């Protein structure tokens, strides 16, 4: 929309509405008009948009030197709107449609450290190559 764009509000009885997605700062005016009066009163408003930062996840895999089938995952997750959950997703290589999801944490915080030993809680069968995603 440009500064000179005029938008009509939707009317439902005595209520007026307009729906738009706003992605950057936006200044706007409301002007009242009817059949008898044009631009009777003009009110100025503005939206100030605070851009969302991307969530980050840092994960480090450590292989057990004594048990080659065990991996340790340590990491941290951050998001300015909060972290709802952290999942570990795994599947047998070449069999992506049969992925399994393990919920590691549901912290409901903006920052969370996590630690997981894989395959400690899974239904893992040895001898298969696995792809693991966090």
Automatic annotation (TrEMBL):
Protein name (record): Uncharacterized protein
Source organism phylogeny: Bacteria, Pseudomonadati, Bacteroidota, Flavobacteriia, Flavobacteriales
């Amino acid at each position: 929309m440009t500064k000179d764009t005029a938008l009509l509000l939707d009317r439902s009885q005595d209520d007026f509405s307009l729906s738009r997605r706003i992605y950057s700062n936006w200044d706007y005016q409301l002007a009242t008009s009817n059949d008898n009066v044009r631009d009777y009163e003009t009110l100025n408003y503005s939206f100030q948009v605070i851009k969302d930062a991307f969530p980050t996840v840092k994960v480090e895999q450590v292989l057990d030197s004594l048990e080659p089938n065990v991996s340790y995952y340590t990491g941290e997750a951050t998001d300015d709107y909060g972290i709802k959950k952290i999942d570990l997703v795994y599947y047998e290589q070449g069999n992506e449609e049969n992925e399994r999801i393990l919920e590691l944490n549901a912290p409901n915080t903006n920052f969370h450290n996590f630690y997981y030993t894989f395959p400690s809680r899974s239904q893992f069968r040895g001898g298969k190559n696995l792809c693991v995603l966090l």
